[in-house]
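ABC transporter substrate-binding protein, pasting as requested.
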Amino acid sequence: MIPPSRFRRAGILFVAASFSFSLAGCAAASDTPASVPGTAEASSAISSPQASDGRQISIVHALGTTKLDAPAKTVVALDGPWADAVLMLHGTLVGYTETYTHGTALGGYLGDLPERFGADATIVGTPREPDFDAIAALKPDLIVGSGETSGEHYQRLSEIAPTVLSEGAPTTWKSRYLVLGKALGSEGEASAMLARYEEEARRIGGEINAGASDPTISVLRFQNGPTRIYAAGSFPGTVLTDAGLARPKSQRGNQDFIKVTAEQVADVDADRIFITTSPLGGERSMESFRATESWPEIERRTVAADDAAWVTSESLPGAYSILEELARTFHVDGPTVPDGFAGYAGEAQDLR
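Structure tokens follow.
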């Protein structure tokens, strides 16, 4: 049995901090949208959320520059990672979209955040087909989402409320918090949250490496389609990198994922293999791997992980959940989480 969750709470230190990551590919500043959706990385020059003389907040993002007359309070999020970010930064989430993989549910790894900051949130369509009337009825101060999925609707969304659309690349998920923190008037809180997370990742990874002699980690996802190993360029890959945990040699490149078949099952081998199962055909996909001669030996090192947290969240709550599952697996203290975030307390599942 894996020990129960061991989250420890701590208040956030609302101070500025420096980070090891960068905001890449800043879009050119413009009051009009870029011509090609989703071609520039979401980023922002972080400054005071609103000057004392009442100047606008300007946010450079994937499709142009969006200006706010005052920090936003109510937000519609057109994809899951943005919804997570709104909740984590204690904005009021008034609308969010249904997803193909997980339907209308917000991630269980979010703890009590949906109840506290999104209790009245309603569904406003899907990322690719937002319900414009439903969004307008909510009268949000801000609309956020991904240029990749919602970019073609940018002009129409901007007519409803100021809209910020990011590139959505998993390797730059942290920039979402700085951009949103600027829009919400809580840059210091966003910076401190990221600094605290990175500090906890280093601590947990260091304790794991010391106690388990620098173990290698694989992340394998069974889904409807080719099975994937998530490599260094993926969201779980960035969390493992932040923790300083090693990957098998084949997974150290910058790619997001590597497709594997049952015949290539040996490629997933590592000291610990975290396995997620998509609710869409994941169990069926796993059957072919279970039928191979190599699987019984590999299965001894597998750990069932939360698919939503590890793969689709691309968010700070999801990253904390990954750290917690790593800590439980290697029997070290779990992460200290920010005040107001109950954290994920899921239990391990039996894969066999």
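Note for the archive: The longest strand covers residues 217-222.
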